[in-house]
Structure formats: structure tokens, C-alpha cells
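Quick illustration, no need to memorize.
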Amino acid sequence: MLDTICFQVPVSKLEGKYAGLYFNDSRSSEWEEFTPILTQIHENLKQNGENFEIVTILLDDEESSFNDTLAKLPFLVIPFKDKSIGKLIRYFELRSFPTFVIIGSDGKTLRNNCADIIEEHGVDAWEGFPFSQEEMGILEEKAKAKLEQQTLESHLVRGEFNYVVGKDGTKIPVSDLVGKTIILYISVVWFVSWREYLQEKELPSGKIVCEDVILLFTEYGADAYPFTKERVKELHDKIENIKGWPERIKHEVHESHELLLIKCRPFSIYDCDLCEGTGDIWSYKCRECDFYLHPECALEKVDGEDMGEEDGQNAAKEEYVCDSDVCRKVE
């Protein structure tokens, strides 16, 4: 791991501590909104004597933006495009930003994602740490008590800004509104109304595109969208290409075990341990080491030798059938 001035920090520093794994992308809008709140929560917990560290898993594509963000963060950070990132994404089944996982002092996962708790309670969420059922009950009671204590002034008054502006530009003190029923209408100039959106958007025809969506989801996962005949044909053609792929291979980057051609579970993704890109549907996997290769990366070199044109043609003649998630050669 790295700290804010790029010193390497051993993972052993986290032993015996609570740890928060913060998954996000510094270019996302969620980053700008969530990170300052999380920073304040971290400071409050430290001041309260909690033995707690946050480890950020940045999913930035560019190293320059990664380094810029690292310099501003008060948290520990996993190095840029470290191979452990892909394994963490798969282990915690990352689905959205932000994701904030809580690990107990014994190394066990306490919460797979408590980002929603922080978004709901804001900085006050630190009072519910480590977000156990008992602590959450206390946090909810405190939030309920604060809600009952709120007044119109607590919502609208901030320092010297203790007024609202009338349609003629006059300043109306918030105190003059006390006792009245108030409707808050929130509008911003960059927000496009739904009517304007519908005028610019080409609406669907209303015709049924596909009646077997569940079947397509099972077969192709999220790639099946938008379920048109053209999309299904495209995916079918892609699957046809696997008939030329060998069932098992040895690869120079992972010589200790054979790699097996497998079909991935629906909606799952993996990170190729050679090119570090993501993949789905098919992979060459070492079941003993959790090692993955894209089929394209795996077949570029087999046993340290390039697959020539003749080898590729011979492989294409071989047929394979799939039983569950394993593909075997037809004898």
C-alpha cells in the first residue's frame, strides 16, 4: 500500500485494526460527494480513539490522475493497477460506486457495503461505527431524535444568510415564515426537465423485442442487452469462435499449472492476469491459483510458441461441447 507521500506501507500495519476498503473512481461524481464525508468520518473516529484505517482502491485508468488523487487523500491506497485490485473486485462482487467495505480486527468482513449508511446519515454516521446491528440501532435513534429537533431555521439559516428573496428582490427574514407551511421547490439551471428530455429522445416503438429475456440473461449475461435479433446474432457468432479453442493449455506466464477453458457465470467479470483488462463469458483459468487469462491473450502464445496459421486451422477443425462451466473436446 501507499500513503499520501508515496511511501510503501506493509499490509501488516492493518493487523489487529478495523479496516475500511473504499472502492471508487476519482473521476466519478460520487467521488466528489462521498470522499469529503468519509474523510471527516475517518478524522472523527481517530479522535475518538478508534483503531481504524481506510484503504482506497482507486479504479482510475490514467496514472497521472491516480497520482494527483493520491497526493490529496489522507488514506492508504493500493498501488496503481496492482493485481490485487481485480481479486478484491471479484471477491466483494463490486457493483457500484462508491462501495465501502468494513473489515473487523480479526480480518473477517463485517459489512460488504455501508456506503448507503454514510450517504443517509452523512458525517454523523461515525457514531454507528463499526455498523453492527446494535450500533445501527443506536444511530437510528439518534437520527430520529435530531429529526424531531429540526426547525425551519435549522434548514434555511446559515450564518448571515438568514433570509429568502422575494419575487421583487426584497429580503424576507426566515423568522417571518415560522408557523407557515413551506414547500421547497429545488431547481437548477443545468437540470433538463423530463418534458424537454422526451422531446429530444427517440421513444421506443412499444413493440416486443424479445420474449426470452431470462434465457438470454442466463446465456450471455448483461451483454445480451438490448436483446435485439442483431445483438443475439453478434453474440452467437462470438460463441461460435470458441470451437477452435483447446480445452487445456500450458502458458509461459503460469507454467506451474494447466489452464482450463471455462464459461463464466452470468453477470460475472474477471481481470486478465496478463494484459490486466476485464473479461467475461469465456476465460482460461487455473482453478488452484485463481489465475485468469483472456482467451485472446492465452492463445497468442501457447507453451511459449506463437500459434501459427496452420495450428490455428487445425484447432478450428476440433469441436468442443460445454457441460456446465467446463468445455471438453468431442472425440
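Residues 29-47 form the longest helix (19 residues).
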